[in-house]
Amino acid sequence: MMPLAEPGCLSSAAKILTDSLRLRRPPVAISLTNHVPSGVRAHGGLVPAGCRFWEDAADRAFYTTASEHSLCAVGIYTHNLQPSPRQQVDLMDALRVFGELGYVRPEDLPLIPTLRSRHEYVVYSPLATAPTAPDAVVLFVDAAQTLILSEATQQVELQTAPAMGRPACAVIPQVLNTGRAALSLGCCGARAYLGVLPAGDSIFALPGQTLGLYVERVEALAKANRLLSTFHELRRQAVESGQTPTVQESLAALMAQGSGSS
Predict the structure, then answer these.
(1) Closest-CA residue to 203 (of 234, 166, 239, 235)
(2) For the residues of the chain, what is the DSSP string, one character each?
(3) Are the C-beta atoms of residues 123 and 131 closer than 8 Å to each other?
């Protein structure tokens, strides 16, 4: 497994994930802590929801406290941050509306992951320049990229990642509480607040403690998927032209194409 504690390893991990998956946005590192890493400043801005920090963290490192999440009572709840009286009122008002709409019923609330422990700060940054080892890594992915990540999850964890719905921010406590990867299909709020989450994309979160294993498997699986995609394409073309190729014949065609392109 890639030794993430060594200098430059997070940068290498970010590059491998970005290149292998052909990510359009860099991986984002998230850490929950009671001590701000040296040199990291507060976010210093107003955002409508905590998930927006994932977008901002692609460009710079910063930390947040409950005050930076002040307009996101749901994010305060899922991240188990200390709420203010106003945020408590906002949460109750939001849950009342959600219940009236049948969006989040009272019996649904216990099923939404929340962080088991409370921390004072949340540190966000690009994975490549993370000031500390991440607790979770967030990736913005399309279906093809999710395919590789789901295959990696099966190989690393011997199970598939759960596909989660609302709220999108609950993917972080899900990963931190279980130590396992999770896929978030987002929520209508995240899709309104994030400029990097088009309709066809989702959020895949990896646990920081096994990130090295994921990087290794993603790199191998991405290469395998590209090669096998060519194999299947050549096989489809052969069948459509009236041939009945064996696997060996399709492999020979793949090798011939590889030799011709080298």
Answers:
(1) 166
(2) ---TTSTTHHHHHHHHHHHHHT-SS--EEEEEESSPPTTPPB--S--SSTTHHHHHTTT--EEE-GGGGTT-HHHHHHTT----HHHHHHHHHHHHHHHHHTSS-TTTGGGS---SS--SEEEEEEGGG-SS--SEEEEEE-HHHHHHHHHHHHHHHSSPPPEE-S-GGGHHHHHHHHSS-EEE---HHHHHH-TT--TT-EEEEEEGGGHHHHHHHHHHHHHHHHHHHHHHHHHHHHHHTT----HHHHHHHHHHHHHHH-
(3) yes
Q: Indicate yes or no: pTM above 0.85.
A: yes
Nearest CA to 81 out of 68, 94, 92 is that of 68
Per residue of the chain (262 residues), give pLDDT as tens: 555 545 478 999 999 999 999 999 999 999 999 999 999 999 988 898 999 999 999 999 999 998 888 888 899 999 999 888 998 999 999 999 999 999 999 999 999 999 999 999 999 999 999 999 999 999 999 999 999 999 999 999 999 999 999 999 999 999 999 999 999 999 999 999 998 889 999 999 999 999 999 999 999 999 999 999 999 999 999 999 999 999 998 999 989 887 655 4
For the chain, give every domain's residue range: 9-223
Tokens at 182, concatenated: 């999770």
Query: In DSSP terms, which residues pair with 141 in a beta bridge?
Result: 202
